[in-house]
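Quarterly update from the structural biology core.
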Amino acid sequence: MPQLSLHTPIGDLTLSEEDGALVALDWGFGRDQTPTPLLVEACARLQDYFDGLCDAAAVDLPLAPSGTAFQRRVWDALRRIPLGATRTYGELARETRSAARAVGRANGANPLPILIPCHRVVAAGGLGGYSAPGGLETKTWLLAHERRLMETLPGNNAGQ
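Predicted structure, tokenized:
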């Protein structure tokens, strides 16, 4: 499986491609580096995101996360959360006609964090959790970064 890594403010990230689509984004620098056209483009778009030039979740890249039908339904709902906005587990549970804990489990199983913005999901009474290295510190950084992006990117409407 081709992989390509990049350095970011939240640590090294590695993207994986299978059958012409992105299937995983993992923390850490991959051992093997295979610069396919898709992986080069995806790394460039992520770098643009970290440089404050775009919303990574809005970038039109082929994504093919492996998961159950329910997980994919939750991940689709995550992609609809606008830049700079958050949703609670309960709100997503209502949207997906499920339970907040089930949404939390699907959120934690997201194989393409940032591109599928699971960091935009918060608990009713606070931030909730984040399973990436750095945990809540990483989640807090991503949310603050996106608030800064909202101030600079034209055409964005925070909180929708």
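The radius of gyration is 15 Å.
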